[in-house]
Backbone:
């Protein structure tokens, strides 16, 4: 299964923002850190379905080494499998 890297950032106003480095413009928000991976998966699947329906190419996930530890500049990296 392909897996895309997602970055989870703490939102200063509350909750957590999730972005995808391989898919510019795709981001989502989760109320809790625990729910962030599930919210990220739903956003990613919806985006990929839209690309497919429009006949657009599906991005190829890049390969990144993940530490799983928060980073003040880049957020916490997780893999989202589709």
Residues:
């Amino acid at each position: 299964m392909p897996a895309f890297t997602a970055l989870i950032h703490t939102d200063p106003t509350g909750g957590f923002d999730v972005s995808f480095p391989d898919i510019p413009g795709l981001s989502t928000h989760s109320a809790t850190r625990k729910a962030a991976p599930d919210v990220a998966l739903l956003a990613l699947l919806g985006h990929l379905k839209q690309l497919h329906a429009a006949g657009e190419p599906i991005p190829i996930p890049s390969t990144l080494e993940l530490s799983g530890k928060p980073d003040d500049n880049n957020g916490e990296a997780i893999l989202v499998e589709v």
About this structure: Strands lie at 3-10, 16-19, 27-30, 76-81. The longest strand covers residues 3-10. Residues 36-53 form the longest helix (18 residues).
